[in-house]
User: Fold these one by one.
Assistant:
Number 1:
Amino acid sequence: MVVLSQPAALDHCSLIKTCKPTSVFTGIPVIDLRDPEAKTLIVKACEEFGFFKLVNHGVPMEFITRLEDEALRFFNLPQSEKDKAGPLDPFGYGSKRIGPNGDVGWIEYLLLNTNPQVTSLKTLIIFRENPENFRSAVNDYILAVKRMTFEVLELMADGLKIEPRNVLSRLLRDEKNDSCLRLNRYPPCPELQALSGRNLIGFGEHTDPQIISVLRSNNTSGLQICLRDGTWVSVPPDQTSFFINVGDVLQVMTNGRLRSVRHRVLADSLKSRVSMIYFGGPPLSEKIEPLPSLVAKGEESLYNEFTWWEYKTSAYKSRLADYRLGLFEKTATTGQ
């Protein structure tokens, strides 16, 4: 449904969709990065859910807490100050509008470049307004999360029995990688909850287009994933752990064996949800196609070859909920 703007208290959330809360799902795979069986468990989780919780990950809580504190310091600034870091270029500050195609959500966010090879004026403005503390908090967090992500991808390659084991991680290690960090704040909206018993959608349903997404949030609930049978379930929050999402590019590279997870975020009625997501993207010129070793003998590749630039451009012309990979799938009849 769409929120109508009749009650004065709800003018500020007009046109943002709502939905009823769903049941909490207790079956999310939990994987210890130091478990000797981690490589097998990671592949199993990504085949069944496209999603898992990672514990014993090695990222210091000090880095996590410091970045969250800096993000909140920014989000608590007067709106006029925050607006100096927008509009997106594609990096910088955004509020409510998600992309250029009419999607909106109950969210404000900072999108930051993580590749020092790429210059973003808006990122520089954010760091200039909030100099050393913010910059060092971002850098420390990103370095630690990248290290962990490389390890996850290499264990995944081991579990898939593909060589070399850096076939996935090398794309994020590449100096031309197209990765980014998004810091999100979903403000509470108690008026709506009291009025209708429904929650505002903070970020609508979608899959992530990149290779992999690494999410950490505070202890406020809101994240939901769609199971294979189409059921939406709520993911219990855990501020000490990370949640790993399979992205569209990884689905293609594994020829559909690992599937990107459809997910969304609901705003809480009473508490702010704060999250930080590292999106691991390959270089723009990287050609994406199923890895030959994952196309079984006698099987066909399910996808046409494309570059990350082509897919990214196509994805950002679409609406959030669109099935973006459909344009790149081979048709069953022509094989083209």
Note: The chain is about 30% helix and 25% strand.
Number 2:
Amino acid sequence: MKTQTQVFDPDGDLTFILTHHPNTVIESRDFTPELGLGFDLNLDSKEPDEEHEVRMQVSSKHLTLASPVFKAMLRHSFREGAGLREFGSVEIPLPEDNPDAFSILMNIIHAKNKAVPRHMSLPLLTTIAILVDKYELHESTDLFANTWIDALKTSMPETFCKQLISWICITWVFRRPAEFTWASFVAIKQSTGLGFETVYEDFDTLPIPGEIIEAINMQREQAMEKILECLRIVVHGIQESKSHHCPAHRQECEALLLGTLLRSASKFKLWPIMESPYPGLSFKEVSYGIGALYIKSFCSQERGVYYATADDSHGIKTILKAELKEIEMHLRGLQLKDFINPL
């Protein structure tokens, strides 16, 4: 197996051993890693992408100052720490970590700032966020993280997709309140209750607390329940003759109201009302459906001064739209501070 060596400290007493897997290179727009001494420069980009070992020589002193996780790992009581004390150096395999992202973090920790990219792709930033959370490198990476996020945030998606889930992860890890609220708001309005893992295949690798996902799902379900309950009450009232929307109380008019309402609601998957968590349906789709309902009264089909000026739906659409407007006014994204445990 081919080996690459990256030297972040020529006197480093710690060597990380990572594995590059084919087709897992995550490019940034200007990513130029600090290759260091002994790096194999014969990796022609035209050659087939092959699995190879990546060895990174680093300073244990820098690592223990930057990361509580590495500090604990290198204590006397752990195998890695005992080996370091006994032999003066130690090798630590990190088979699960991405070498590209890890290299950027090592540059930051070893103060090789010129080698740290100022812009990067969303996938690479997501991978870095995973490692920052894993090794508790938040303070060390704070300044660079803000630069990366500021450069990317104008492209935050407005639909529920893999990229949006990445943004929820990034804004949580790097504690960006405004962007976190926006990303969670989009998820509340546009997720479909089928699970985040259906959109993001490796969702279980993201360090997003379960409480955040639960809160997004709960707000989505509560908003949908309110507007669908209003629809149910309107339909039930007509069916049971408990509400008379027709000012003339004509049965044929009530029947046409009910028929056109149910037919249109069915078209937009609003009827029959499914049970919570309303799988496959987003609040945005419900909102659009309510606004687009086609409801006709018998009165509006007749000629005459009174009936010609009558509301086509005898006020039903007004009721539903007013309820929808009220729900949308109170719909908010999550607040980051609500999920941060006080020290």
Note: The chain has a mean pLDDT of 88.
Number 3:
Amino acid sequence: MPESETVPMVCDQQTATVGPAKMWQGQDISGLTGEHLIYKYENGWVYELYVKNATTIDYRFHSGPVGGRWVKNQLVNVVQLSGKDRYKVSWMEPTGTAVSLVVNLETRQQHAVIFFPQWVHQDGSQIATFQNDHLDQMMRLRNAGPTYPIFVVDEFSEMILVERRRVKDENVVNVSPQEFAPTLATIWAANRLTHKFGQKWGPRDTSDLVGKRLNFTYANGWHHELYVRSASSITQASELRAQRRTKQRTSSV
């Protein structure tokens, strides 16, 4: 195993917006640590994730624009969500790609939002390698850009495989996606998807959220205000304050 595999995947000072996991009091993520997941997105991409411990994941991408990419020891933030066996895993990659993944082990489904910088979206093959051996190259490419416009992937996925492994097992993700392909084919044959995504999740009704004005406080003390204007647009706090000031000036005239 290459020595670089023992180095945690963190971002340098320019992009370190997400650090190692900070556990909220009362959080229990033991139900997720040690889980090995292989899943297929609605768009056809097949990804693999191993939650090595409370702060670290290993992963492989088997298809899609960055198929062939694999990473060990990526630092993540993991939190427990309300409901049974629900978690969120978030991380920032040295490439500048940000990921937020909601995992529902009970229903074997996930939802991901992936924020690809423009240079990755233009040519994903540039990062389709074992990242740990090419960190300097990843950062040079990231810094060269272009970063914007960010390409956003918003997708549901269904788990093809869910298996419990021991924590910190270096043998779960230890070969490239290409070398793992025969094993993946066997897993796929034994766990073939039997339904369409829409049939499983049903209508994605967001009407209960649309029209809501939300005020909330983060654990770090930050306050945020949000107005859900429609199923595809929001108004944030700064805009809301500007609207209120405009109304106050108008009413005072």
Note: The first strand starts at residue 35 and ends at 41.
Number 4:
Amino acid sequence: MLPRIATALLCIVGLVTSANATYGTPVSEGLLDFKIPSTGEIGKTWYRIIGKLKPGVRPLIALHGGPGVNSGYLEALAPVTKGCPGPLIVYDQIGNGKSTHYPERIGNTTFWTTDLFVAELDNVLKKLKITEYDLIGHSWGAMLAAMHAVKQPKGLKHLVLWSGPASMPLWIQAQNTWISQLPPPIRDVLIRGEETGETDTEEYEAASNYFYSKHFCRLDPFPASLLEGFAAIENDPTVYLTMNGPSEFSVTGSLRTWTIIPELHKIKVPTLVTNGRYDEAADIVVKPFVQKIRNVKWVSHTALFEEPEKYKRLLKKFLY
């Protein structure tokens, strides 16, 4: 899922970006050909490997949220794999970041499908010749990771579902609960904007930003890598508007009825479910993962950017 962030905040992104980070380990990047299943076109998926990918190692592949942001903020996970045999691999999903964009297909729900992104992940694994791997997905990325895992891929060894919903109706229910607990003036602005469709006003944007300061990331200011992701969607909102819609609070895009709950019993690998204390992905949103996946551990009230060292230790212990 993606918050609305005031455009004024985005101007600081160029000052500090993940691309300038120093990891103390080899970093490589490139573009992978990806044949679009519905059209046969060849797009390009941009990826970055932090560490050395070689035969016999098990990388951690991280899937970004949105859908519609880029993968830069996921590089905060690099310390998790540092000192371990396998690298961290991130990539910009098609239509996002440094991968091929298709702005002319905004609103085309036969092109922008969940199957498109599942196929792209399969393509990344194939083109990078990865036979064993761990997978972490954040928000929409957790949805994508779950869709991949229910296929029971042979090489998947560990799964991490980080602040993602098991169904979009549960997501909306959680947002409505959070909104009801806001100060009345802010609550009323959000409800009125959703009811009238007037979500492009300064008043609504300010109320939205207040909501996200409480339930998306409570750091002030937001980390630069997160702002970089918001800038990416400002530059090209095609994927987000088509699949999610203009608002987090009343999803109108193609994901509005999405659910993975009936298939969760198919996930057999060790799975870690995490969400934060004040997370948009409230407990009700992630509980089906815990109830339906057999080999699962749930750690609530932990968030990467607000409790970074605790979260990284948690991941490292689970994965290695």
Note: The longest helix spans residues 114-127.
